[in-house]
Amino acid sequence: MDRNVTVLEMVVTVVLAVLVCIVAGLLLATGFYRDFWIFWFCFVVATAHFSLVKSVHGDPASPIPGQNRITAASRAFYFVLVGVVGFCINVALEQIDSFPPLCAYGFNLNNPSVFSFVRDGLFILILFFPLLFAWGLLPQADTFIIYLAEQIDMHIFGGTAATGLVCAFYALGRSILATAVLWCLGFAAFYNLGEKRNSNGDTVRYTCADLDTDPNDPRGQCEITDRVALSFFCGALVAVSYCLSRSTSNHEYIWDMLTRLLNKKMREKQQSSPDNVSDPLGEIYFQTLWRRLLTDLLVAMFTFVAVTALNVTSVFCRSEIPAYIIYSLTCVTGVVNHYIIPHVRKEMPWLCCAEPIVKASEWDCYEVQEHPRVTVIERFLQLSLYVEKNILYPLSFLFALNLSALHYQTRFGEFGAALVLTVAGMKLFRSSFTELSRQYLVFIFTLFFFNFDYRHLSEGLPLDYLIIGILFSKFYDLLLKMYFIFIYIAPWQISWSSPGHIIAQPLLVPHAPNIFFQTLIASIVGCPINPVVASTFFTLSYARPVKYWEKDYNTRRSDSSNTRLDSQLEGSLRNPNPDQLDSLFYEHLTWVLQKSLCGDLLLGRWGRVTSGDFFILTSDRLNALVHIIEIGNGFVTFQLRGLEFRGTYCHQREVEAITESITDDVGCCCCEPGHLPFFLSCNKAMSSRWLAWEVVSSCYTLHGYSIAENQAHLVFNTFDYKRGYITYYCKSIIFLLVRSPRLASLLANQGIRDALSRLHNTSYVDQDALFDETRNCDYSHSLGGVSRERFIVYYLTFIRECVTQQGLHMDLDQADSFLVTLCFAFTLLGRRMFFQHAQSGSSRRGDNFMNGLYRMFLGDARPNHPGDEWVFQDVDSIQDIIIPAARIALKVHQDNFAFSEEYETAHGVYEAIQDVMNNHVVTHENDRTWRNAVVTNKPSLLALRYQRTEESYIYPYKLIRLTSKFIKFRVIKVNRECVRALWTSQRQELIFLRNSDSERGSIQNHKPTLRNMINSSMDLPIGYPIYVSPLHTSYLDRHETYNKTLFGRATDPLWLAQGARVVRKLCDTCAKHYQGSLAGKPTQGTANPTDGGEEGGREGRMGAEDRSVSVDSLTGLQYGRGGAEGGARGGAEPYQDPFPDSDSDSDEQLWRPMWVSKQVVITDEGEIFENINPDWLTWPDPKLAAKAEKSHWRSWRPQKGMEGEVVHEWRPFHKETAKRSHIDKVLVLVRMADDYYVLTREQGIKEV
């Protein structure tokens, strides 16, 4: 039996068990089940109960292998859900005679036979639960809730896809809330909408009989006595729909922004903490969201006023002729924007042309040198989409709403008409604002179907569009599923990966009707239809949301900041995973897409894109699957899955199929007559139509890194190369030592001088056995070691160059200078640690020298020679001088092969080392610095990698060189139903059928569907991607090229941007005046200092100062930043009194201490600083800084209620440095009992 591990799980289990009993009793009381079916019904109830006690391991509906506690409650959940719905319908059926008739499209929705059919279907469905659960046709409970909420929000309210359980509730909840508010406005608009004046001057109702029962007849529409309320409703409907379309369904972004705005304590901790490089897009996201929120508010206000004013003029109800003119323009614009332009820009337009008709600016470029330019066709598309989305569709739908208003009121009454127009209007406007790519097809089909074919069935364009939009979505899914099935079962494309497939192919023929029926059901429900074990038999699976995967990723890269030190130093003894190192490049690609994807989609660089589409990006090394999850008005949410750099044989065959030339094929059936210029051959044109993917673009350009791998042993295979590296290693040590800020302290350290006194002798020779003449140029063969005399000969010139360049005034004419001795000691130290690691290498493989280099490159510098103990007096110099020198020397040694002549002089070497320091990043790939350099797009990076494979067993060390450049990708659009089907097939085969064969036929290469690449991108352990990104949202505001054009910011034109700046400036002005009024306004207890009210004046100043600081913090938020920017700005600029001439206290009274020598008690432990950087503050005694740290407290901890005495305080903007706080809050140092000290903000204490 399963154990309940949490209290919540136990409570849910008990509640579900009780509900199953209650629902079972209610269903039996209906009398529907009789005879044998009562027994079977009891068996179904027993399975629902037993699953709560013992869950199924390896459930077919489980997304993960093994035990899944969520699926344990699924059977009981579905039994209760279906039973309650069926029982409610049964109760409604008994009272259906009292319901008013409700007709739509010629059907009576209150027909008893309809209710009876649905009730019987649900009751029968309960009996099939054991079979449905056994085959996995019902998802786990949370997946079903996400799917149901997403479908309702998308198809009824025009929303976008959901990204999680909470996000689904958030998206659906805001839609329902907006509908409720607009419903109230709609009811007010329809209350007096149908009144008109007759010939006698009396007010009468306007009925549908006056319109000849035609909902689109405009006669009488403008005779309404009061159109203001309807205009107000239309304006609010458009404004609310626009605001909803601009916000993503992911609540975390809004929550994070509200947290940053309201939680000042969190902002202060971020200010007071040292710089910690995390996600570089966090602050940018906050700024973007804040600007979008402000801009959306302005646009919504303008839209509301404009639509209301335009609707009052009755321009939408005078005649149908303007309406159909707008309808025609909308249809033509949609065809041009979403059919003609995407096809002429494809790699193979209409699958018959060999190259794009309209090429991108980078199509003929071998190597792109700059950001992709916006072409003429992209500017036209940009303008056309702006007009279509913000002008044509809103005008078309406003015509439709006005022409259908009276019809809906007469048909459904005031309440019903308000509800229908609210829901249908939100669907219309939100769909036009968010996903335009297929709205033109829905719009055209709605107009033709209900104006020419079945005009008598029309219920008005708003409701017709709502219904056709749902049907079109299901029909489009049906086409994609059928297209995938035809491609997958085509006999000439079967890979025959197993004998079973050969037998299964002929058996498919009699099951064709069954496959079509299953496909039809799958399209209606929204579930994938998958091939069983990659055969030609297809079965249904459970319904899934657009996101598909239930798991939420929060990838955390392992590097030197979050791994144990011993694992870092011993990394050379194990084979590090190269996939983990290569995943950083996919992470960088994700950040680049996060910045540019939304703008590129609107510029048409990815062709037609809809929610749920899949794309594959391929370059020389990178192969990534991009899943478009959510498309909104100015944002796109996506997920990236990176594949292995060196994939399997099947992987490489599919990559070759993507990149193969399309002009080499000249065949036509069995002959080779060639092809016309600019066109494909007949065979190629036909075969391209039997692929589940197509190349959208072959020159999509993104900023990234070109990756070059070289065998490291090639540059160290001779003694001359090794000696050259050691020489540059010593010169790099000298360079860093002379530049070190601790050079003065090292030279003045008497302990170091005494320890190095023996090296100061000009005849000193270090005869350590680690040194030899083959690798050390200053090795004396006659003396048997490295001598100081030869060191001076080879390195004194470079030491003088470094001293001269640094502007140091030192006399180096004498060879007995202590600086020379110090340089000699550091070079001996660095070489000794290097050669100790080299000596520990395996001589069998001849990689001793590389082992020493790799260990030093990792930072494994551990002096263990008695002659090097002097360095323990300044241990930090190892990390600041020795380790960086080993890395810099590798880069200089690499460049020496290309610029050997420039490195012959001391000045040339100095310039080379300085260039590496300033313009290059040289470190190992597990270092945090490496990741930060990639994130910030450093131009050049170099690393040394240890990778032992079968191909590189003898020479496992590789040099990884990254160069920042623009990379051209191929964009391949894959049939989304193909991806969902193959993913589902793999999950069923591995989790439910438990086929663990690594060479199973279902993952073999299949060119028509790219089966291996798609299956490799699945979640672990089914697939094997090296990187799966969290869900990222790309905002249009961050696309540089798009925003430089006139219509670049479709939601923030130039005049709106100017309005936003005016509003921000107004907020700043008001905040400053409010701050000044607080500073000059006397508060309770304030007294004039001349009257002797010193204490009251001090308390008044404290209140005014605290509130003025809070206002200043809030003022900083107008620029899209939190308190961090305000703190940085406040620390850099002195405080200026906004009213310097006002009556105030003198400076001495203003800055006199408020807390010093007072007894206080701790009230908030969260305000205490446990880890302190002493450089932040100027301490009255340096020893107090150490006593206030957590390390000094040991087992003691400050707690709430403890008392102490304030010994010092720091105030913001204090004129004295010793009393100035580094943040905008007062800090106090409290002396506790037993000589413990605590640094805290004044908000965490109070006076006793």
From TrEMBL:
The chain crosses the membrane at residues 7-30, 36-56, 76-93, 113-138, 145-171, 177-194, 297-317, 324-341, 439-457, 515-543. Residues 1119-1130 have a biased composition (Gly residues). Residues 814-1040 form the Pecanex C-terminal domain. InterPro entries: Pecanex, Pecanex_C. It is found in: Membrane. Residues 1077-1148 are annotated as: Disordered. Its main location: membrane. Pfam families: Pecanex_C. Keywords: Membrane, Transmembrane, Transmembrane helix. It is a multi-pass membrane protein. The keyword tRNA processing does not apply. Residues 1095-1109 have a biased composition (Basic and acidic residues). GO terms for cellular component: membrane. Belongs to the pecanex family. This is Pecanex-like protein. It comes from Geodia barretti (Barrett's horny sponge).
